[in-house]
Amino acid sequence: MEAVVGLILLLLRVSQGVETYCDGRQDRAQCYGALGGTVDVQLMTSALVLARYWWNENRTVILDGIKTRIMSNLLEDRSSFTPSNGTFRITNLSRNDSGEYQLEAIDLDGNIERRTLHLTIQAPVGSVLLLSECLSEGQMRASCSSEGGDSPQYSWTLDGHTLTHAELLSGNNETNSITLKQHVSGRLLCSVRNQVSRVSREETITDCDRSLLICGVRAAVGVLLLICITAYFAWKKANSNKTEGSAVAGTREHPENSVLMVEL
Question: What is the pLDDT of residues 98-123, one digit of tens each?
Answer without folding.
Answer: 999 999 999 999 999 999 999 999 99
